[in-house]
Write a structure and sequence with these properties.
The structure is a single chain. By secondary structure, the chain is α/β, with parallel strands linked by helices. The protein is built from 10 helices and 6 strands. The longest helix has 14 residues.
Length: 222
């Protein structure tokens, strides 16, 4: 009789305790998946992986939330796949925007699930990742297909951060004020302004303000 393969070991990373407990409880009824530890954010996940690596006990898969304090899921995924290439990362998030999907996959994620996915889908994504396959939530995959068949135009070309910057430009904020508002450097603010003007094919901040009003990012002046 063939020996049973060892269970896939998973590190659960989410800043909500109820989510971690729910996932862990589901894994407990499975023979082939085991939750070996949990972390509350990306920074703690990296610390735990470092400790595991020291003992040669890295997990097979990290199940990763995206929006967390200290270190978000995309940044943590990039670090994990760089430092521990054998560890696969599956994203489990409430956010289905294609921009976030691209960011996660570009940084090495092997799967992308929404939190309304069923337990069987979560398990399926973990198993797929262990086989070097990519598993994407069906709702997000449809959205991705639509974005490919209909390339974005106008402000749809902008990232979330660039939209924030565009709104502040339209409010008449200087680069210094934008930097302070968004907790970024003035140089980064200047780069965002330059990028969004380029993407929208605009020559001035005044033109950008008009685009922001037309797009409904802020009300027209009365």
């Amino acid at each position: 009789m063939a020996e049973k393969a060892p269970a896939l070991e998973v590190l659960i990373v989410d800043d909500h305790g109820v989510v971690r407990r729910g996932i862990k409880a589901y894994f407990e009824v499975l023979d082939d998946i085991e939750a070996v530890d949990e972390a509350t954010d990306g920074q703690e996940a990296l610390e735990k992986l470092s400790a595991m690596a020291a003992y040669g006990e890295l997990p097979d898969v990290v199940l990763m939330d995206l929006m967390m304090p200290r270190l978000d899921g995309v940044s943590a995924t990039a670090e994990i796949t760089r430092l521990y290439p054998s560890v696969k990362v599956v994203i489990l998030t409430s956010f289905g925007e294609t921009e976030r999907l691209h960011a996660a996959l570009d940084n090495g994620a092997s799967g992308y699930l929404l939190k309304d996915a069923g337990p069987a889908e979560v398990a399926g994504a973990i198993r797929a990742a262990s086989r070097d396959e990519v598993f994407i939530d069906s709702a997000v995959a449809k959205q991705l297909a639509r974005s490919i068949s209909a390339p974005p135009t106008g402000i749809a070309l902008l990232t979330h951060r660039e939209r924030d910057v565009l709104k502040l430009v339209a409010e008449g904020r200087s680069n210094q004020e934008i930097a302070k508002e968004l907790s970024i450097s003035e140089r980064t603010a200047r780069t965002h302004v330059s990028n969004l003007l380029g993407k929208l094919n605009l020559r001035s901040r005044t033109q950008a303000a008009l685009v922001a009003v037309r797009a409904g990012l802020l009300p027209p002046a009365t």
